[in-house]
Amino acid sequence: MLRKTAEAHMIRHGGKILSDQLVKLGVERVFSVPGESFLAALDGLYDSGIPNIVCRQEGGAAMMAEAYGKMTGKPGVCFVTRGPGATNASAGIHIAQQDSTPMVMFVGQIDNRHTDRETFQEVDYRAVFGGLAKWVAQVDHTDRLPEYIGRAFRVAMSGRPGPVVLALPENMLSAAADVPDVHVPAAVPDALSPQAVQSIMHVLAEAERPLVVVGGPHWSAQAQADLQAFAEIQQVPVVAGFRRQDYMDNHHACYAGDLNVGINPKLAQRVRDADALILLGTRLGDIETQGYTLVDPAASRKKIVHVHADADELGRVYTPDVGIVATAPMALRALSQAEHAGAWESWTAAARADYESWIAPQESPGALKQEQVIKWLSDNLPDDAILTNGAGNYAAWLHRYFVYKQHGTQLAPTSGSMGYGFPAAIAAALTHPDRTVVCLAGDGCFQMSCNEMSTAVQHGAAPIAIVMNNGRYGTIRMHQEKTYPGRVSGTALANPDFAALAQAYGGHGEVVEKSEDFPAAFARAKAAGTIAIIECKVDEEALSTGATLSAVREAGTEC
């Protein structure tokens, strides 16, 4: 009788089995929009001790999970319902894939006994997410939940991290099974071999104009320290990949800027002139290379060392002279102890001088100057403040003028997804409630996810959103003026009163029309201790960091 009781104690419904695996895997919180397709999972979460951050739209939930994964290096977890819930969340999956972020998304699914009948909200998730996610699977048997969940977390973290999608048929989740929990193997850290270090240093030693480019996943405060030690010993210039500016203290004498959409022209030329590229973690994609024009994949005319955690990335675009399968932090642990190999001080000093000249504020039109706002934030925010953003021309001011000091202070999508900044800021504020979190957004970008203000208020997150309001989709308008000058079509916006919107959610909101009024407005927003919006009225002429609307239009007309 006792034996039977013990056996019965192991029988759990699928939702409970699932939540028990998440507990064992160390999941700290999940993000969700509830759905009837995974009621058993919600029941399993009820007494699991794992906070469930209930969001307002699945895209916001997925972006919050992705931001959590980016911050912690552990898989961000979200739950969404079938059909429209899953497709709403696809933007977050795409971000995680392109940003190499570990993430696991659980999707409620129809009763699997009714597959292929076009049942209510039926979707083939392998087909939908096959090109977006790292792995997609459906769990059809309750007793295999631990197996699938364990594999999902391993796949999300292995090699080049990325998103995994697991579909959970509702009948499978509600059924019961007697099955042991997932086994979590101990992580055994590897070290870069002496031969690999010698290969890297040999290419570096032979170079006259080397450039180190850093990016990709797996970074940490220790990796930042090792990178800076390596740069100091070798006296080589270090460049950050797109939206990876917090991988090195930007005050460091070897830091030479970042490879973004609005790149410093002198840095672009330096990439062309370099005779050796040491690529650490980065894929060196089309943004970093300006559409593969700075470095020709067919004939790079420079030595390339590529260190990446995924063997499939080595030679995918650029064929390296030395390709090493390893994480960038692992490589830097060893490289930080290598002896000085060459004389690059003048090359590095010139690169640094170009960067310092580039970040000197260039005045833009109007009473509210974005360069002054960003400069104030850079000079006055705590070093550990977290800055988030989505996509739009407003971000160019942030990338150009904000000086990042610590690792883990930049959250931005390398995929260029609009609407990301605000959900990411909520995730950051929940993960680090003791730190200042600021979301920079354009008026168009912010409105793609501003409904998540309700999520922030409900769960006690208090990020400050700075909305640059110019009444248009600025990036598209810029390209429009270049290509079809004066013919404005589909880029104008009718915006709400953003300050009043914040107040409607119980937060703090105000409007700033002059740069000199911004510091006091920020102090009031910070003191409010709740969600806050500072709406900055931007002059229509302020199109980009280096051009006005009129100048771009005139140039387009002349062409």
Uncertain segments of ≥5 residues (pLDDT<50)? 1-9
Distance between the termini: 89 Å
SS field, number of helical segments: 23
Q: Look up the CATH topology of the largest domain.
A: Rossmann fold
Trace the largest sheet across and list its strands.
3-2-4-5-7-6
Overall body shape: globular
CATH architecture term of the largest domain: 3-Layer(aba) Sandwich
Number of strands: 22
Tally of discrete structural domains:
3
What CATH first level of the largest domain would be assigned?
Answer: Alpha Beta
Structure, explained:
It is a single chain. This protein is α/β, with parallel strands linked by helices and 559 residues long. The protein has three domains: 11-178, Rossmann fold, CATH 3.40.50.970; 194-358, 3-Layer(aba) Sandwich (Rossmann fold), CATH 3.40.50.1220; 370-558, Thiamin diphosphate (ThDP)-binding fold, Pyr/PP domains (Rossmann fold, 3-Layer(aba) Sandwich). The chain is 39% helix and 17% strand. It is built from 23 helices and 22 strands. The protein has a six-stranded parallel sheet with strand order 3-2-4-5-7-6, with helices on both faces. A six-stranded parallel sheet has the order 11-10-9-12-13-14, with helices on both faces. Strands 16-15-17-18-20-19 form a six-stranded parallel sheet, sandwiched between helices. Helix 11 links the parallel strand 9 and strand 10 (238-240). Helix 2 (14-24) crosses helix 3 (39-46), helix 2 packs parallel to helix 8 and helix 4 (58-72) packs parallel to helix 6. The chain is globular, with a radius of gyration of 25 Å. Mean pLDDT is 93; it is low at 1-9.
